[in-house]
Automatic annotation (TrEMBL):
This is Aminomethyltransferase C-terminal domain-containing protein. Pfam families: GCV_T_C. GO terms for cellular component: mitochondrion. PANTHER family: AMINOMETHYLTRANSFERASE, AMINOMETHYLTRANSFERASE, MITOCHONDRIAL. InterPro entries: GcvT/YgfZ/DmdA (IPR028896), GcvT/YgfZ_C (IPR029043), GcvT_C (IPR013977). Residues 11-80 form the Aminomethyltransferase C-terminal domain. Residues 1-22 are annotated as: Disordered.
């Protein structure tokens, strides 16, 4: 299993334990965390464990939210480039 970020459609976010499927409906992973994105307007993000072969950036997957498949795309981390500066003392 590989851990990747997934960018999901607008709607309720996926929750921990939600099933991740390929476009044929076969399970390929599970969501470990899903939240509304604090940086992307009206978008959700999720992180999960995904089987090798489905974890490549750009892969199209589905996440089951409330029993309904929602489109998702695997993206590289960091999800959003940060200009955060931390001065270590």
């Amino acid at each position: 299993m590989s851990q990747s970020w997934s960018h999901c459609q607008k709607r309720p976010p996926a929750r921990s334990g939600a099933m991740i499927t390929n476009t044929n409906g076969n399970q390929v992973g599970l969501v470990t965390i899903g939240i509304p994105s604090p940086s992307l307007k009206s978008q959700n993000i999720a992180m999960g464990n995904i089987q090798s072969g489905h974890h490549k950036s750009g892969s199209k997957l589905n996440v089951l939210v409330c029993g309904k498949p929602r489109q998702a795309e695997v993206v590289k981390m960091p999800f959003i480039e940060s200009n955060f500066y931390h001065d270590s003392c």
